[in-house]
Amino acid sequence: MSALLEIRDLVVSYHTRSGVVPAVRKADLTVAPGEIVAVVGESGSGKSTTAHAAIGLLPRGGRVESGSITFAGRELTGLSDKQWQGLRGTDIALVPQDPTVSLDPVRRVGEQVAEVLLVHRLAPRRAAAAEAIRLLRSAGIPEPERRARQYPHELSGGLRQRVLIAIALAGRPRLIIADEPTSALDVTVQREILDHLEGLAVESGTAVLLITHDLGVAADRAARVVVMSQGEVVETGSTREILTAASHPYTRELLAAAPSLAREPLRPRRDAGSDVLLAVTGVAKSFDGKTKVVDDVSFTLTRGRTLALVGESGSGKTTTARVVVGLEAPTEGTVTFDGNDITALGREDLRLLRRRFQLVYQNPYASLNPRFTIEEIVTEPLRAFGVGSPADRRARAAELLDQVALPSGMLARKPAELSGGQRQRAAIARALALHPDLLVCDEPVSALDVSVQAQILRLLVRLQEELGLTYLFITHDLAVVREIADHIAVMRGGSVVEYGPADAVLTAPTAQYTKELLAAIPGAVAPDPIR
Fold this sequence. Notes:
Blueprint: E1 5-16, E2 19-31, E3 36-40, H1 47-54, E4 62-71, E5 74-75, H2 81-87, E6 92-95, H3 99-102, H4 109-119, H5 125-138, H6 144-148, H7 157-169, E7 175-179, H8 187-204, E8 207-212, H9 215-221, E9 224-229, E10 232-238, H10 239-245, H11 249-257, E11 276-286, E12 292-302, E13 306-310, H12 317-324, E14 332-337, E15 340-341, H13 347-353, E16 357-360, H14 364-367, H15 374-384, H16 390-403, H17 420-432, E17 438-442, H18 450-467, E18 470-475, H19 478-484, E19 487-492, E20 495-501, H20 502-507, H21 512-519
Parallel strand pairs: 3-8, 3-9, 6-7, 7-8, 13-18, 13-19, 16-17, 17-18
Antiparallel strand pairs: 1-2, 1-4, 4-5, 9-10, 11-12, 11-14, 14-15, 19-20
Helix pairs in contact: 4-5, 4-7, 5-7, 7-8, 11-18, 15-16, 15-17, 16-17, 17-18
């Protein structure tokens, strides 16, 4: 079958004030009509730059230096802006990664879908609104008439992503470029979005170029996989060939790093033990006095163990964590930490006790003050509690960076100068500054590439063994839980629907919801070739 999209010897650079930065080096890939091809690689590998070059949407400073991009036999390099406008949306469409950024927050959803129809003169103004509703319905959005009248902030992340798909479908394109379309979504919503894209390929012959860092997604959805590293295509082949007989060391590293239910945990499981550090009993929380976002949640966590609190967005897991550390007061129930009922403590007593439990947040890009140096960030808890002299705090900062495997030279840097993985290590160092007993880790690896994710998980396991830490680990990803948890509590609709030892929950779940979460994990049944 002849290629619909063909990229040959593509070279792309970014021209910046500090010089020319190579982004893509001699990349080749093809996509046939109706085919799903996944481009896989870490951040900075060049996969998104390659995709954006194929639709003429390189960021400012991006330039195709050489090579060829053809679509249905037509050369695309060198097209004028006007020529791209005629092609983009009708022949090639983009589903971007972040609907929060991509959708206009002050315009109704239906208007934004209809705009594509009007710009490309695919429907008269009177008919555009009705056609927009049809497109929302075809993208799998329930109650499309009502949703069309809403603004993006009134929709969930999954619904916003479906709006982007509806916008992409509006011009009836022959190729959809989906750039990390599900990386920020829960696994069940992710499966629904990918099911829809796969259905388009099967039913209408629409080709899909799927950009992802998740080999599980590629294994589930793509016929072929293109692996990129440092701007180069290092391996291409059928999905089965890549998964079972990867030849390039980088591909094998990605496979080894990917979380999987088939993988052994990073350390042996431990039983519950008897030294209870944290006890949550009958906790409920409502913000309006009526609707309970957390309802009758109970669990215990013993010293030196890891309890994973698992659930999708809106399940109540993060609210539960905030109650645990005293950032929210429960409407009902008690939280006892090392024998102290923190729900009954006054503000100053709670502040003093809070030294012993610390939070590690999801997004290291948002959780670190961009104006502070890493030394100032790491020593901030010490200053807040008046611990040590300035010299003592500097020494402690260097010690903490060593604990999280960061060079001491990074103390003078600011967060913008660090990679995502390095920032999360700095966030963990800050959390360790006051020698806490409990770390509450709220989705600490979900924003990271799989290889960086694996490094952080191994770091957390090592620190737990060395320092005797106890973890409450908040996540929506049961494959990550498999790697580190001793016990699991699964939450849905504010309640715990399953609770028990990790192996029992993962291999013989009793709740239907837990079974659905397990079934939705990308690559859950894919071969696990690297040992």
